[in-house]
Structures are given as structure tokens and as C-alpha cells.
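Input C-alpha cells:
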């Protein structure tokens, strides 16, 4: 049934709301459920949400709100209308110097905390998925995390909400007359909430159950503790919305009270001989003030020992029935932390541990231990058999029952044959996570999963626990809500649903279900498709880092559409297969920047760019392949010609040049012919060899500087690097034949493998000789080219260093700043991030500028070599948020690390971005 408004609403990426590609791409989330929505909407304003609510109700269908898609319990899936709220509603407004923050549901936790960081504040909720989970999901699930417990979660730290009810009524709970306004607009809801409060308070058994269950983490059912904690119906409404999983209304904005960032940290690992010993120590450590107490059972430790960078003390442990607690003290400053370490020393000394616990303030040790803890999911999920689904569940029990419960859970794993199922979690909260892998395409395995779930529910309830601690009830636990709460409170919850949503429009089947088998329906069958991506768990961590996320597809969506195409082909659904394939060429392949940023966020290490490069290679034939093959043989002439062409173009009227490229694109294809734009510079100068008597490095100037000249007659990055070396008294050489050499990225990214191998062989041969067999490092002045050269060097024996890192170590100490800059805005690149040189970039900038700003909205610019010329819409979309943030301020200088990225940001912002070394050279010139 269509619910489109007369204007035929569209959703950006794929056109019509009912398009199969859009519907199948967005259907997949981090849970083990899969339903394909009938249509997808992307409302932009509160008014549009209210209108959508009314239209869906009138059409008699259902509506589900979806943002980050990181939920694990099935609450973001629907066969009805799916409203994508991630694309809009991203506003972040810091209030009262960071003491409060007003946030839209489409912003991620990491983005909000980045905005608060300069004020020394952060959000209370601290979910592990903070890189990708959005505020909408955090509120809808009352998500918590490793530190916040139940004192700093959303329920406790939200000050006010703006809510759109299923009727279309908008409620702003911050307004002074909010309660009266609610009574006027929604009299039955207002009075009904009062009646429910009175009903619960009149039943001592209900009060006792609520107080018991909500004394610890509990996201099962509705937050009926709101009926005890608040009197005014509008306040009850606001707190019932938290944890309601999109079944009662839509939260369009939330104002949080923030908490301080405790930046001084000491971390340690306590290893015990038994799980019982570790569990017994949990309450002792929590009472002593440890901020985090993270449990890892014996299976977790065995899995951790297989990680390549496992700490030596864990690798050497002969694991039997051992368990470990990762513990951490946090304080506002170093002195306070030192006092806390002294205060807790006796507590640690008294623990029955295998070896003495050492609390280290060293960032490297902390990173190593947390990588161990977080690597459990990576190790198990990444190694699971192809075609299986990874299930990450969470429960909570009273801390005093933690050890016995975990023993019972391990017994269930053994009983049902779930091997390598790790147990970990937030021990001080009694919050246990466990992971298992299952196939849902075989009846006997589905029966096993059902029997295990029933037994697990019995076990949790036997120990007085909650069946969901922080992941939300979703579909997976909806049939068991009555088991946890009893009939009376279960009836209260259904009455809450009826008061808010009398037609059952919002997210049916989620949080409450009278069907005992509903959790076994619509289970996700994970197809085996391609080796590059089969281990994807569809968590969505990759999505915020993807430059095409608001234009076409995200990495997760590129992967799931490959699975959908494989499924359609197996089913013989040729119509769907044809549509998906047709859309995928542009959305999946042409607009992928293959920048690798997805891999940096992926818990199982997938680089979706590897998939896209292979797909490009499979179709890389014909005239284009011949041209690029020839270019690999005559690269010097090609770059010189490209630079000369840009110089000529710069001298001509820009509209005429652009028109010519438009004609070329119409004849040969948009993915083959670049689109000219007025901000492009003229060509640069040719690269030339440089001899040195005693060089400390071999300089490899990037060819991009030959093709794209510097703005306004300034020095290029290569020229600035040479000038800085001369100024610092550091000798570098440039190898013979440099003009015909390249890092190979143009061929590799386009899938022209023969040309890439030809260029790689030549570069390795030249640089092996130039570096004296690897004695000298190779330095490159474009971060993406540094990455490309480093890949070539893996099999050649020489080392590649980016010019920024080289300048920080060898040049900056010998330079004197003579012309400081007032303010500078930085655009780190995806390559600089993956090379790990962003701290050095900031250090160089800070050495020459009084104020250095890296935008909170920083991300990959999507220029990706020539992608920004072939598909300028990709760069426009990727840079929109960052450009808007930069434009809101005023800066004296704009810097980056790569020429093409500088072009992309120049186009987006309207200011000339230059390489940081150009700014460094200008700021350290000797005065006459």
C-alpha cells in the first residue's frame, strides 16, 4: 500500500521510496533478524515526521524508525514502512559550556562526545558501539556501557525530549506548560498515565518487582520505573519513551546533562584461577571505586591467546579454569589518580590472583589490554564458518550470583554444543555478554537454538536476573517479557502501548509479543558470497566513516546487496536480480572511494574497497584498459600532458572547458571522463632527479604535483619539502627516472591489475637501488601515495615514511618559526589516519599556528584520486558537514596532507587548502 504524499517523496540515494535496492540495502542491521520494508522514507523535519505518522495510520500499515542500525535484538527491522532518521536529525548544540547538550537522533555518540571534548565533558551513556550507534538508538534502548551503569544512562541524564506521538502530536517536555499542553492535546494519554501510576503504586508486589529489576541494568519491556519515579504525566511520558524501542513515538531531539571526562587512567588485568574467584572479587573492586571491571572467562582467554598482539603475560598463561578482570581507575588529573592507586593498593594485594596486579597509567598498556578485551568479538566473529550468524546476547544478574550464573551458562554451551562461546561483560553491573554462532537454515539447528534460548531464559530468571541488560528487548526477548515481570506488570505494559499507540502502528512485534514463537521468525540467513566479505556481521560500524553514506551506499550495504543478489539468483528472482545489479554499478562500484576507512572501524577487519577493486578488475577491459596499460609504460609523458592540459584549460573560459568535458562524458561515460570545474589549478612542474652526497633518505615526490599545480604560484608540497630539508641541513636524494614512477594507486583503485603490477615492479627495482638495498628510508609527500608505496615495499625490503612524519622527526627541531599563523584548520586524510600520522600533523600545525582546529565533522573527502573529478557529487556529499563546520568559523590557513584532498576541500569550502609542509616552509623562512 502506498503512503507517498502527492509530491512523490524520494530518499536521496536511490530515488523512489519503494526502490528495491534502497529497501534491501537498509533492511539489514546488526541483529539476526531480516525483514524487507515495503517502502523507505527519510523525513527531514519534525513536521514531516508528524505527517508521516498520520499517513501511515491512515494507510493501516506499520512504521519503524531506524538510525544507526547497530541494534542487536531486532528492534530496527520491519516489513512495513521504514523511516531512515540517520540522514537528517544530526544537529548537535553544546549548551552551558558543555554542561548540557541538545542532540538529534541521527548523531552518533562519538560525534556528540567530540563536540563536547573541548569542554572536558561527555555523554553519560558509553556503549561500545559509540563509533556508529546514534542517539536515537541509545535513547530507544536505554543503552549503557562499561562505565555508566544505571546512574549515568539516558534515563538518569536526559533533561528533556521533543517527542512526536503516533497521532502526530508534538510534545516538548522542556516547556514550562508541557504537562498542561499534553493534557489538552492528548487527554486520554495524560489521564491514563496517572491511572497507571496509581495502579502500580497500589500493588506492593508490583512495586517490589519494579524496584528489584531496575536496581540493576534492565532493558526488558517498558521502563515502568518511570511510574514510580515521577508524578507529572509529561515526565512519565518522557521517561517511558527512553527504552521504548520506537514503539511509543519518535524522539526528534534530546537534551542531556553531561558528565566530566576523567582523562587520567590506570589500567590492569587481574587473572584468577577460577571464575568463582573472579566473580567474588567483582563487588570488592566495585566498592573500592574501580570505574570498570570487565570479565573474561577461560574460553575468552584462550581465544585472546590466538590474537597476534596478545600481551606476553596472557600469552604465557596455561589456561585451565582461569578467568580475568580488566580493571581501571579513572580520575580528573594525575595527582588524584596517584592517590587513588595508593588507596586501592591494599585491595589489589588481597585478591587471590595468579600474579600481582599492576595498574599502569601507560597508554600503550591500556590500549593493549582493551584491544584484548574488544578483540574477543573480532576473533570469534571473524573466524566463524561462512554462512553462520554471530549472535551477541546480554543479560544481567545480581552481582552475588554472577559466578554461579556463568558456570550455568557454560554448562548450557556444553549441553547444546556451542563451541568457543565466549563470556565477557561488565562484571560490576552483573552484566554478562555471551557470543555464539548459529545457522538458521537447518531445522535441527533452529530447534537447538530454540531449546538453548528457553533454557537460558530459565537460568537467568532462576538467578533473579534480567533477560536484557542494555541491548533492548527487541524481537528476540519480546515473548519472554511476561515471564520476567509477571502478569500484572505485563498488562500494565500493554496498557502503556494502547495509550500511546492505540492502532498498533509503531514497530509491532517489538518489545511486547503474545506469540511465544515470534522470536523464531524472520531470522537472517547469511549467504556465502565472497571471501572478502563473508565474515561481515552487518554491525554497521563502518557506516559513519564512509564518504558515500549519504549519496548511495555504505560498506555494509555494499556487502548485503551482494548477499541479496546471490539469494535472488538462487531463488530465480530474475526481476529483483536485474534491478539490484543495474543499480549496483553506480551505487556500489562507481561511487566507492576505496579509501579503506571502513576497515579502520570494522570489528572483523573488512576493507570493502578490496571487494570493489576486484569487481572493477573483473570489468576492466576494452579501450580504457588499453589506455591505462599504455599509461603505465609512459607515465612521465602522461603526467606532463595532464599538467599541460590543465594549464591550457586554466587559461580558457571555465564554462567552455566544462562543456567540452560534459560532451566527452556523454560519449564515453561519466566513470571514464573527468568533469572540469573552475577551481581546478593549472598543471604543476615536472619531477626531476636530485643527487646528494650523504643522503639520509630517498625522496619520492608524488606525481600528483606534476598534474595539479599549487594555487597562486605557491610552492608545491615537493618543492616545500626540498626547501625545508635545505633549511634544516638534511640531505635527501631523488632517484633517476622519477618522472615515470608512481605509487600505483591509480591502477590498483580502478582494477587495472596488469598496469599496477608493471608499475610496481619498476618502482621496487628503482627504489631498492636508490635506498642502497633498503638502508635508507623512502619519503613521500602525499599521504595516499605513502600508503601505496608502503604496500609495494612489503615485498621489497625498503621502508616508506610520510613526509609529515619525517618532518616532525628530522626537520622541525632544526627550524625557527619566523612568520607564525594566527589560526589554521586541518583536514586530515583517510591515508594520514591509517598511517597513524595525524598526531604529527597536529604537532606540525601547532608549531606554526596559535590556534589549530580539526573539525568535529572531519571525514574522508571522497576525492579519492580522480573519483572527485569523475563523480563530483561524491565529494560534495562527503564534505558537506565538514565544509559547513569550517564555513561557520574564520581561519587564516587551511591545511591537509594530500594534493587531491586539498582540491576536494578547496572545492567544498571555497578556500585554498595547501599541504602542511607548504605552510611550514612559509612560516620558517629566514628574515632578511
Amino acid at each position: 500500500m502506498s503512503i507517498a504524499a502527492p509530491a512523490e517523496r524520494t530518499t536521496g540515494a536511490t530515488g523512489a521510496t519503494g526502490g528495491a535496492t534502497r529497501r534491501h540495502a537498509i533492511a539489514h542491521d546488526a541483529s539476526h533478524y531480516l525483514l524487507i520494508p515495503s517502502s523507505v522514507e527519510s523525513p527531514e523535519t519534525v513536521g514531516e515526521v508528524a505527517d508521516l505518522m498520520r499517513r501511515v495510520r491512515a494507510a493501516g500499515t506499520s512504521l519503524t524508525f531506524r538510525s544507526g542500525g547497530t541494534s542487536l535484538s531486532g528492534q530496527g527491522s520491519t516489513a512495513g514502512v521504514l523511516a531512515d532518521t540517520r540522514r537528517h536529525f544530526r544537529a548537535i548544540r553544546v549548551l552551558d559550556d558543555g554542561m548540557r547538550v541538545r542532540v538529534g537522533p541521527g548523531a552518533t555518540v562519538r560525534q556528540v562526545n567530540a563536540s563536547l571534548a573541548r569542554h572536558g565533558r561527555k555523554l553519560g551513556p558509553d556503549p561500545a558501539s559509540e563509533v556508529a550507534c546514534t542517539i536515537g538508538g541509545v535513547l530507544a534502548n536505554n543503552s549503557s556501557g562499561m562505565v555508566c551503569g544505571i546512574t549515568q544512562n539516558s534515563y538518569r541524564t536526559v533533561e528533556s525530549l521533543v517527542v512526536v506521538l503516533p497521532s502526530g502530536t508534538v510534545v516538548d517536555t522542556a516547556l514550562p506548560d508541557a504537562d498542561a499542553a499534553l493534557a489538552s492535546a492528548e487527554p486520554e494519554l495524560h489521564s491514563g498515565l496517572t491511572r497507571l501510576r496509581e495502579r502500580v503504586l497500589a500493588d506492593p508486589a508490583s512495586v517490589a518487582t519494579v524496584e528489584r529489576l531496575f536496581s540493576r541494568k534492565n532493558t526488558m519491556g517498558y521502563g515502568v520505573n518511570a511510574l514510580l519515579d515521577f508524578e507529572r504525566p509529561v515526565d512519565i511520558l518522557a521517561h517511558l519513551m527512553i527504552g521504548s524501542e520506537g514503539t511509543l513515538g519518535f524522539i526528534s531531539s534530546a537534551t542531556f546533562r553531561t558528565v566530566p571526562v576523567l582523562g587520567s587512567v590506570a589500567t590492569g588485568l587481574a587473572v584468577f584461577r577460577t571464575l568463582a574467584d573472579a566473580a567474588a572479587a567483582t563487588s570488592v573492586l566495585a566498592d573500592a571505586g574501580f570505574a570498570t571491571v570487565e570479565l573474561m572467562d577461560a574460553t575468552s582467554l584462550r581465544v585472546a591467546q590466538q590474537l597476534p598482539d596478545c600481551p606476553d603475560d596472557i600469552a604465557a598463561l596455561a589456561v585451565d579454569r582461569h578467568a580475568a578482570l580488566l580493571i581501571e581507575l579513572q580520575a580528573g588529573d594525575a595527582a588524584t589518580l596517584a592517590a587513588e592507586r595508593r588507596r586501592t593498593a591494599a585491595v589489589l594485594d588481597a585478591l587471590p590472583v595468579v600474579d600481582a596486579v599492576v595498574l599502569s597509567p601507560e597508554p600503550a598498556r591500556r590500549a593493549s589490554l582493551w584491544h584484548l578485551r574488544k578483540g574477543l568479538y573480532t576473533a570469534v566473529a571473524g573466524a566463524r564458518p561462512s554462512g553462520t550468524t554471530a549472535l551477541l546476547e546480554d543479560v544481567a544478574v545480581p552481582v552475588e550470583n554472577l559466578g554461579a550464573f556463568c558456570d550455568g551458562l557454560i554448562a548450557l554451551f556444553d549441553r547444546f554444543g556451542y563451541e568457543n562461546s565466549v563470556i565477557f561483560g561488565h562484571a560490576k553491573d552483573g552484566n554478562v555478554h555471551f557470543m555464539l554462532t548459529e545457522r538458521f537454515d537447518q531445522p535441527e539447528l533452529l530447534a537447538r537454538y530454540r531449546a538453548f534460548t528457553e533454557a537460558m531464559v530459565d537460568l537467568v530468571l532462576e538467578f533473579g536476573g534480567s533477560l536484557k541488560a542494555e541491548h533492548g528487548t527487541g524481537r528476540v526477548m519480546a515473548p519472554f517479557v511476561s515471564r520476567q515481570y509477571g502478569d500484572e506488570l505485563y498488562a500494565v505494559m500493554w496498557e502503556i502501548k494502547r495509550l500511546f499507540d492505540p492502532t498498533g502502528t509503531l514497530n509491532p512485534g517489538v518489545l511486547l509479543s503474545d506469540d511465544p514463537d515470534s522470536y523464531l521468525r524472520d531470522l537472517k540467513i547469511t549467504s556465502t558470497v565472497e571471501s572478502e566479505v563473508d565474515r561481515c556481521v552487518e554491525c554497521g560500524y563502518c557506516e559513519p566513516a564512509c564518504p558515500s553514506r549519504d549519496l548511495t551506499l555504505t560498506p555494509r550495504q555494499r556487502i548485503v546487496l551482494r548477499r541479496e543478489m546471490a539469494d535472488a539468483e538462487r531463488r530465480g528472482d530474475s526481476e529483483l536480480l536485474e534491478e539490484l545489479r543495474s543499480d549496483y554499478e553506480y551505487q556500489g562500484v562507481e561511487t566507492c572511494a576505496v579509501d579503506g576507512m571502513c576497515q579502520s572501524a570494522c570489528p572483523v577487519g573488512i576493507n570493502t574497497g578490496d571487494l570493489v577493486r576486484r569487481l572493477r578488475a573483473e570489468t576492466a577491459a576494452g579501450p580504457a584498459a588499453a589506455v591505462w596499460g599504455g599509461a603505465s609504460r609512459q607515465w612521465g609523458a602522461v603526467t606532463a600532458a595532464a599538467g599541460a592540459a590543465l594549464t591550457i584549460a586554466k587559461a580558457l573560459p571555465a564554462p567552455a572547458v566544462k562543456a567540452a568535458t560534459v560532451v566527452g562524458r556523454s560519449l564515453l561515460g561519466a566513470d571514464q571522463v573527468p568533469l572540469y570545474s573552475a577551481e581546478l589549478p593549472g598543471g604543476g612542474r615536472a619531477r626531476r632527479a636530485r643527487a646528494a652526497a650523504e643522503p639520509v633518505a630517498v625522496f619520492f615526490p608524488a606525481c600528483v604535483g606534476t598534474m595539479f599545480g599549487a594555487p597562486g604560484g605557491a610552492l608545491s608540497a615537493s618543492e616545500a619539502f626540498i626547501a625545508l630539508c635545505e633549511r634544516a641541513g638534511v640531505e635527501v636524494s631523488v632517484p633517476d627516472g622519477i618522472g615515470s614512477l608512481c605509487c600505483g594507486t591509480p591502477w590498483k583503485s580502478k582494477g587495472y591489475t596488469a598496469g599496477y603490477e608493471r608499475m610496481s615492479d619498476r618502482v621496487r627495482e628503482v627504489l631498492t637501488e636508490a635506498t642502497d638495498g633498503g638502508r635508507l628510508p623512502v619519503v613521500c609527500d602525499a599521504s595516499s601515495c605513502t600508503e601505496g608505496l608502503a604496500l609495494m615495499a612489503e615485498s621489497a625490503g625498503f621502508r616508506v615514511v610520510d613526509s609529515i612524519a619525517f618532518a616532525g622527526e628530522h626537520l622541525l627541531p632544526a627550524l625557527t618559526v619566523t612568520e607564525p599563523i594566527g589560526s589554521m584548520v586541518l583536514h586530515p586524510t583517510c591515508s594520514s589516519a591509517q598511517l597513524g600520522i595525524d598526531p604529527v600533523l597536529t604537532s606540525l600545525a601547532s608549531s606554526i599556528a596559535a590556534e589549530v582546529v580539526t573539525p568535529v565533522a572531519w571525514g574522508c573527502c571522497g576525492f579519492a584520486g580522480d573519483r572527485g573529478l569523475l563523480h563530483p557529487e561524491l565529494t560534495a556529499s562527503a564534505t558537506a558537514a565538514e565544509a559547513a563546520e569550517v564555513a561557520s568559523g574564520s581561519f587564516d590557513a587551511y591545511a591537509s596532507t594530500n594534493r587531491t584532498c586539498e582540491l576536494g576541500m578547496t572545492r567544498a569550502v571555497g578556500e585554498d587548502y595547501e599541504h602542511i609542509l607548504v605552510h611550514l616552509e612559509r612560516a620558517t623562512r629566514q628574515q632578511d
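The chain has a mean pLDDT of 93. The chain is about 45% helix and 10% strand.
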